[in-house]
Amino acid sequence: QVQLVESGGGLVQPGGSLRLSCAASGRTFSSYSMGWFRQAPGEERHIVAATSRGGGLTTYADSVKGRFTISRDNAKNTVHLQMNSLKPEDTAVYYCAAAAGVGYYRAPVEISQYNYWGQGTQVTVSS
User: Fold this and answer.
1) Which residues pair with 73 in a beta bridge?
2) Where are the alpha helices (DSSP H) in 1-117?
3) Of 17, 19, 29, 89, whose CB neighbour count within 10 A is largest?
4) Where are the alpha helices (DSSP H) in 8-125?
5) Helix (H, G, I), strand (E, B) or coil at 24
6) What is the pLDDT of residue 104?
7) Contact of 100 with 1, CB cutoff 8 Å
8) By the 8 A CB rule, do 97 and 118 touch?
9) Contact 88, 125 (CB under 8 A)
10) What does the pLDDT average to over 4-20?
11) Confidence band (pLDDT; 50, 70, 90) for 103?
12) CB–CB of 14/59 below 8 Å?
């Protein structure tokens, strides 16, 4: 129902910034809550940030709060993750995901609530 493609990952030094983008197909982008997840080596995939269908509500994992910002542009079918003050602990594969059947003012944080996933993009924070 929707295809997601992430971009913007790469190598960055600690303290640096990176902006991830997710492009979605279709005409129904605004019907999905959107989230960014990440999975580090040997770790379980978990929520990084999520936003409601209209972008008015956002939520963040405690580990990234104050450093990362999620945003969406429904007119362009895109969602972004601005990552500032990056730390080595942020190194992971980052995934864009879409959640269907969620209320308008909801930003889901559980993997089980998401239905569609991008292929992931690698973010490596290292000196």
Assistant:
1) 78
2) none
3) 29
4) none
5) strand
6) 86
7) yes
8) yes
9) yes
10) 98
11) confident
12) no
